[in-house]
Amino acid sequence: IEARLSDGPLKGKRIVVTSGPTHEPIDPVRYIANRSSGAQGTAIARALASLGAQVVFVTGPADVPPPEGVEVVRVQSARDMRAAVLAALPADAAVMAAAVADWRVASESKSKIKKTKGALPVLEFEENPDILAEVSQMVHGRPGLVVGFAAETDDVIAHATAKRARKGCDWIVANDVSPETGIMGGTENAVHLISDAGSEDWPRMGKQAVADRLADRIAAALS
Ligand code: CTP
Ligand code: CA
């Protein structure tokens, strides 16, 4: 709470931020997940709080600790994350930085699956709810600004622009996670901000600097 500026430009604004991976259980000891340290989402929540926002930080099991001065809601699966996000609404803005697993294992085993010679397990999957698309397409109580992320390879801006249209969010923060960029798992990020005005290319900078710049843009958009 000390980190929250009492009179910053986001004073009185409630913002939901998702961060980290989700874990989709296979059995009591195994899960599937996306790679995500939670660093970028954590930096965004910190930046928004430092501008005075009331932040609800919905986080999967991340490597980095949550920031000071936010309300932390810890979740495991995509379905838990969806429920926590919906429970945190209404909000003035939502920033979905989580690396949500696209699929969950269809029938989670309550018992540990044992290794049996000559027999490999076969996992069936079901699609997880798309939290960003659902919040973006809310008819009642949609946050005024919905921001998604897109970690892409190849034609990053084309993929992210199509993703923005498909999901119905206002902005997409897109980055190139091809191995040769060294972005994935690193401390820096090079992003493109995709909006109805097109694509803005930001220089490569630290993740906190990306977050601070994004928070300034969110403050301007909500004012
Ligand atoms: N997202 C979400 N719920 C999901 C999947 C994704 O809220 N089930 C959000 C992410 O937090 C991110 C954005 O949607 O803000 C884009 O995620 P991404 O995985 O890039 O999009 P997908 O539609 O899953 O497309 P892809 O096939 O590229 O994984
Ligand atoms: Ca995905």
Automatic annotation (TrEMBL):
Per the UniProt record, which EC number(s) apply here?
4.1.1.36, 6.3.2.5
Residues bound to CTP: 102, 112, 129-132, 149, 163, 167
Q: Could you tell me which residues belong to the region Phosphopantothenate--cysteine ligase?
A: 15-223
Q: Which reaction does it catalyse?
A: N-[(R)-4-phosphopantothenoyl]-L-cysteine + H(+) = (R)-4'-phosphopantetheine + CO2; (R)-4'-phosphopantothenate + L-cysteine + CTP = N-[(R)-4-phosphopantothenoyl]-L-cysteine + CMP + diphosphate + H(+)
Sorted keywords for this record are:
Decarboxylase, Flavoprotein, FMN, Ligase, Lyase, Magnesium, Metal-binding, Multifunctional enzyme
Biological process GO terms, please?
coenzyme A biosynthetic process; pantothenate catabolic process
Name by which UniProt lists this protein: Coenzyme A biosynthesis bifunctional protein CoaBC
Please name the source species: Pseudooceanicola nitratireducens
Q: Which residues of the full protein are shown?
A: 175 to 397 of 397
